[in-house]
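Deliverable D5.2: sample structural annotation.
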Amino acid sequence: MLHLNDVLTDVYGKNGRMILSGICDGQDIDHIVSKLTHNVRKKADQIRAIFKKEVPQYVLIRLKSCLEIIESVDKQITILENEIFRYANKYHKREMDILLSCPGIGELSAATLIAEICDFHDFSSGDKLASWLGIVPNVYQSADKYYNGRITKRGSRVARWILTQVAQAAARTKKSRLKMFFNSKVKTIGFQRAIIALARKIVTI
């Protein structure tokens, strides 16, 4: 059995499929390696070692079948995504334009957030939307003092997950106000809490 997962983080990613398709088509391993991205070519010796022995015919047949199924599913996903984008841009164009103007948000993230939140007009402010999404801290009282705890995690888990992914992308965006905001927070409250703070900032823009 093949053990590409020992070399690649995603066996069915671009490089993985290139290797597997090449093996199924009977291509020379050196020719296959030459087409891979630079980072993966660094592992050429490991890849060659995996395919040092001839791959059994029954494995190649099963592998080719699996690759064809994955390709077919990918095509269906693309069709569905394009239909979702068409619908979102037709009926929620303003919301899409606003979301897409934010660093780190792509069409799929924007359309998913719209689907999860539904009507943005239900929230009178960004703070109320952030509260509904569960990316605000719990507040505890002890005597006359108030303490902030972990985030409430109310609302949509999907929307919350997307926002944290968007925040991580925004934190890597060079020369942006969001990155500056993240940098101002991360030194004092740590990476994870700074990402949540940035996600909340994005919601309240």
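Annotation notes: The first helix runs from residue 14 to 24. The two ends are 51 Å apart (CA to CA).
The annotation will be released with the project's public dataset once the embargo ends.
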